[in-house]
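Researcher: Batch entry, complex prediction.
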Amino acid sequence: MSEGGAVTGSVTEFRQSLSDLDTPTTVVPPDELGATLADVIEAPAVGAELPFDDLSLADAPVTLDPSPSQLRAAATGVTGSRMGIASLGTVAVESRADGDEFVGLYPSRHVVVIRASDIRTDLSEAFDWLRAEFAAGRRSFVLATGPSSTGDMGALVQGVHGPEEVHIVIIRDNE
Amino acid sequence: MSDSQRTDADRIRTLLALEGDEIKANTRLFNADRYDAVKAVGEDVHERNRTRAREIKEDAIERLPELIHRTRNAVEENGGTVYVADDAADANRYIAEVAEAEAAETVVKSKSMTTEEIDLNEALEEGGLEIWETDLGEFVIQVAEEAPSHIVGPSLHKSREEITELFEREFDPDESLDSAQKLTAFAREFLGDRIDNAEVGITGANFVMAESGSIALVTNEGNARKCASIPDTHVAVAGIEKIIPSVAELEPFAELISRSATGQEIPQYLSLLTPPVDTPTIDFNRADEPGSGAGDEERDFHLVLIDNGRRAMRQDDDLRETLYCIRCGACANSCANFQSVGGHAFGGETYTGGIATGWEAGIEGNDVAEEFNDLCTGCSRCVNACPVKIDIPWINTVVRDRINRGKDPGFDDLLVDGLVPDEEESGTPLRKRFFGNFETVAKLGSATAPLSNAVASTGIARKAMESVLGIDARRDLPAFERTTLRDWAGERKSRVADPDRRVALYPDVYTNYVQTERGKAAVRVLEALGCEVVVPDVGGSGRAPLSQGMIATAEAKAADAASALLPYVEEGYDVVVVEPSDLAMFRREYEKLLPAETQAQLDEGSYEVLEYVYGLLENGADADAVPAGDGDGVAYHSHCQQRTLGLETYTETVLDRVGYDVLTSDVECCGMAGSFGYKSEYYDLSMDVGETLAEQFEPEVDDRTVVASGTSCMEQLDALLLPGTRHPVELLDPAGR
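Model: Structure tokens for the complex:
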């Protein structure tokens, strides 16, 4: 499937997959993004500007272009994602000049904003998308699924080098 | 027992006691989760991914020089550097130079077996650098100054309590680290500071994509992402075999790697990075400036591709497949012996588990592989577990053969060469030749039974066998029958006037000389179901010598067996095999030992005995011709090679169909696996593995008949549980009605 193609992934399945990962989701229309973020953010929060033309973090209670101290002190980091996988509950976080990588890694809560129309059905469709992105010269992504976790200390623990919790905000399509 | 066998026995006993519990719990959990994850995605889909992954690897290794060239071009075009290192010293020198050019004091690392292979940490530390492993398992190992015991979970032999004790001793924290949460939080903070301050971050690369110069990293903790993006300089270290053509070829591996490793559908973080990445550099010296400290440093990227023996492996027809390995650890997790002793026994200087023999032989040499190669019993349970379909038991056999050949001829050789009919060169260890020539022993034992059995069971004989051959005196020996199955069958007239099918029952060494009752039962069952049965004059399949790494002898046996059996196949007989490990020879190993056409013909004409009974019943044979189960209980242990071939279900179905209530064991292997369980240094391990099977069947033995398909499984169950284990075909024997 190419960029801007038909919606194939189901929001319901995406939410179910995330729920299996103990990852909460919120579905909102575009104009409620700011209010929703205010709800799901634990302050202080940092953010990387969203990779969408029509959505922005400018009015949200987050610090964009954070300093190293702000990154370290932040409880929440907000980034956007241009691709999610319904069957897995995965989101793609891009390595961009806005610093998505750090915003998604340092704070213990990672809030990801994704558009419903960007949800793919499964890994196979995700790879169709990745191939198109690579062809377009965008070639660094992390496919992140749930919070960071380890079993190395004798029991499953979340929040190791990455976030302890992830919250996905799904932006319903304009009708 | 020789001195070296005694040392091995002690070492195994110690590891069983110290690490066994944790290794068992963790590997079995991974293994069980793998089965669940494969079932969840669908076995067909999984199989398609395996086939595709195998094709990609075969092609990529074939085209490796070209792919290295393309990788170099792509990385350089992106602004990075590629260095192809011939060996460990070359790689370490280059990486040290990179660190020096960055004036580095601290290096942080994400888990990488390849850097373990080249002992990178030691090399950098000698240059005065501080190195920190950031994967928590690897960090534990670093602090404990130990080697990883598992490819995926380097510290999974350690309990939480042991880690607490270790960290409290080493770091003297303010509060007790008496939970996994506290340990994790401590490590996160400790390592987080070091990552922030490091000048160089080193990662491995699970895959390198030639076309774009990208790397793929698989982690659950997120540490690889931090090591790759927080320090300005990123060095990725990978074996040259990790290259695939492009992101398009990554897809089947993304499906397979975590599912095979830990039973996860996908890792927490699958990073596709094309360095230098666009993420801004971060400058903690300007901690309050926006834009990550508005870091104005250039991002620097070095891809170090390591040969270290791999190009030679690529030229080696038997070791080449090792290069397809994606380091998921499924072979280790599915290995019954590994599940008990882990990689500190079943591994070499770097790599552990089934595939480790291939890696260590290729990278370090046969002498390192020899230290643990005999722990592979050839049970083949790893074959279906491997996501790229590497024939791991074959690699282990080939290396065993090379190790045998490398031995200096001893004084026994003149004597042994005269006595045994094998094809081995002088120097092959006496004990291996004894087990490898078991057919000769069985022939003699049978010809002189019952005297041979009486003599063999005396204390003096057992002591001699233990000291000369290392056969553990605690094991019961097989008792040879004076009348072989073939003699018995030769005396009989066919009982079927108008046969529906004609069967050549293969008289494997055990069925012919030892377990003749199961052979006779097989003949009677097949006759009852309308088959004419003959027992042809044919020798061993070559399984025994193959298990000892005596490939030339196995090849000769295979050729003899095939030339004796194929005329029957050509005349329309079906070859029916009682012993699953011999059927596995025909179906799997003969691919390596015989011309393709011969193997295919024998394979297509051969069946496991209960598989054949199933077929007869499906094609209208009358099930009432064999005794009914009447709802009686059966505790059934299939056989490792039989399960690998997917044949377990035929026995279950047939027994169920004639009215038995069947409970099947779910352990990977009984632990005996042929000659392995007889060897004194492995006796304890063999019994430890068998304990799991015994535990499952123990509560059932009062209510169920214990049956097993394989000879060695029967022997192991008899030793563990009770005398009197039977072969499933004996339950169907009309003579037993």
